[in-house]
Specification:
2 copies of one chain form a homodimer.
Chain A lengths: L3 E5 L14 E5 L4 H10 L4 E4 L3 H11 L4 E7 L2 E2 L14 H4 L3 E5 L3 H7 L5 E5 L4 H10 L4 E5 L8 H15 L4 E2 L2 H13 L3 H7 L1 H8 L3 H7 L9 E4 L2 E4 L7
Parallel strand pairs in A: 1-8, 1-9, 2-7, 2-8, 3-6, 4-6
Antiparallel strand pairs in A: 4-5, 10-11
């Protein structure tokens, strides 16, 4: 197997021709990757990404409202009429256990849909980085790390997490496969492991702090807090291991 | 004036709403920025970017063939039936003096067209970096540095040149304005000023070396070799200063 790791800084950079022969890790540090990891840990049945709030409502009509929650944000704020926004702190066991989450975030949901043609797919963050590295190592096809970006633009926090993943995978026999992977490694080195400071300096981190979500930055920057990997199957994410108790 | 410098790693990231209020510097290190700087230095009258080889031929039909040259590449190689490819070494005074160059490169031409809605625009490279910094400092509107990328994907050499420009502009009162600008600065620090080594490690640098264009990497990596700035006016680039003798 080719042990190179490619990085895409935006989902639009994905090569649709090679995607079906690859595994993909989709990253949206602030905040979908972090939020979904905790939602599944706290017992959500599965997470279905959708591109728009309208599509979320339509899908709930189709599958029935009893065991579903409408989740997502626009400009960082919970969508009007939805059950939950995109803050990990909202996703408690009391609220999410046994539920199907219909998830309409601005960037992560789009990236999951864009990368859905990969042969296998997972969602990665700082909170489950080591578990993601294990997942990549267990794969037998080349892997691409996909940043969700921010409304079609580069996002530093996703790229830095890719850099961390490339770095720890380099210790396990992998090597950066493209310019973006090498650039991400530079960001990893510059951050020096202080992920909270890094998040606070990013465009989106600062925006979220202005909205009062500083606590979400602390959550998102906590390396290897969880061992759960959200994995893709039948157009939805489920937990790769039985979620532990809260 | 807002003395922040934004970077776009791909032309697709440009915000079309704010572009008419901004100046833009388009960067395609390997090789259009470098080639066009030398073409104008060596006396080319102007350079008109076009998106496709077909459009290049049509335009030559329209404006007449006598003083025009068809220039450009696909996959790094001169387009069949064209006068020149995209190697700076082809653009000698004997060949280009007084000519209008119709320029169909794979990435730089597309980026110039994409950024054409900027209020003012120039093309930048390592070879004219200091002159570009002077041009940016003389502007009174916010500036965005636009990487051309590589067939829609991130290219390390363009990002690193942005990092160098952000770095020297930081010494003149500017500051990085977005995540991409900060990331580019990291790349600049890691390169340590050894631009030839950096170019040789990039995906496209390696590809060009395989094609036998190593000399173009040496040319492209020579910092501040020229003081000419290609500037945009009426959908074409011309020299901002009278070109010196060869």
């Amino acid at each position: 197997m080719d042990k190179s790791i490619d990085v895409c800084f935006l989902p639009q950079e994905l090569d649709e021709k090679t995607l079906p022969e690859r595994s993909a890790v989709v990253i949206d540090i602030l905040r979908a990757s972090t939020t979904i990891t905790y939602a599944l840990k706290y017992g959500a049945r599965d997470v279905i990404p959708v591109p728009t709030p309208t599509r979320a409502s339509e899908l709930r009509e189709q599958i029935g409202g009893k065991n579903t929650l409408l989740c997502g944000e626009r400009l960082g704020i919970k969508i009007d009429g939805f059950d939950l926004g995109n803050s990990p702190s909202e996703y408690t066991p009391e609220i999410v256990t046994g539920k199907t989450l219909i998830f309409a975030s601005s960037n992560g949901s789009q990236a999951l849909i864009a990368a859905g043609g990969a042969q296998r797919m997972a969602m990665g963050a700082f909170v489950n980085a080591r578990a993601i590295a294990d997942w990549v190592c267990a794969e037998t096809i080349p892997c691409v790390l996909v940043c969700s970006g921010k409304l079609g633009q580069f996002s530093g926090e996703d790229a830095a997490c890719c850099g961390h993943l490339v770095s720890i995978l380099s210790e396990r026999g992998f090597h950066p496969g493209n310019d973006a992977a090498r650039c991400a490694l530079d960001m990893n080195h510059r951050a020096g492991g202080d992920w909270l400071s890094m998040l606070k300096q990013t465009d989106h981190g600062r925006y979220l702090m202005e909205l009062g979500f500083e606590r979400d930055l602390v959550t998102a920057s906590t390396l290897n807090a969880e061992s759960l990997v959200p994995v893709w199957r039948n157009n939805r994410l489920t937990a790769s291991v039985t979620p532990g108790k809260a």
